[in-house]
Amino acid sequence: MESGQETLPEYDLPKIEQHLIHRFLMGKPFITLAGIPTLVNRYDKKYENLFRDIKGKLPQTSLPNLIITTLSGEFQSYNDVCDALSVVEVALGFLAMTGGEPDMPLVRYVEDILQMRDQIAACILKALSRCYLKHVIALWQLLTTRKSQWMLRLKRDPFIELSSEYKQPLSDNDQSHLTAFLMQSNVDIFLLEINEFMLLNLKSVRALDTFKPTWGLKHTLIPYIEGKDQEAPPEIEDLPEEILLSHIVETWKLAVATKQDSLVNGVL
């Protein structure tokens, strides 16, 4: 590992699975699967379906801007973000099956219902203590975005699985227009929505057939957001027409850089 770089976690999944079996299942009575929902591996089920199941049982709401800002400051490393995201993904899997009380604190659910207190660092529990079950999907969106930002900072490609067709460079003119747009927009929300869109839609081997790189980014994002029963941020209407899906990765990177510059200069 080079000096100054952070250690990136590598997980021994079979060992973790064995630990979970011993921790939660050994000695418990056998229950047949007939008549009860089955928990599927989170990587085998599309997140859109997972989120739909949760919303059907548990109303969801956005994270307040203050909590977004506070949480972003709480996670001081890539490892912190990954650890918090792992907790949230476990909660998502169970909530999709069972639902829950929207106003139950997330930490209470994780500690009392899932009995995961001993597996979670105190700093992660403290950060998550600001959230409730009604925030769990928005929290996943925030943490996956912060993970992508950390990967970029660590010189890794957060979108390595995306086709190069979505990674085309911006012209100088495009960069100028896009920067002007970003300076007048809520960059955090823009980052969250684009990151989620890329992770959920553009990693598929058939993405190029479904989402044409020649489509306008604005005219793709707006119906995507509205399709989640949310109102698209009004400023997205001002996204330059010449910015296409082929520019989406570079657009996201420019938004990250704009956000970082604004924090340094105290603009946003």
TrEMBL record:
One of its GO terms (biological process) is ubiquitin-dependent protein catabolic process. GO terms for molecular function: ATP hydrolysis activity; ubiquitin-protein transferase activity. It comes from the Eukaryota. One of its GO terms (cellular component) is cytosol. This is Uncharacterized protein. It comes from Erpetoichthys calabaricus (Rope fish).
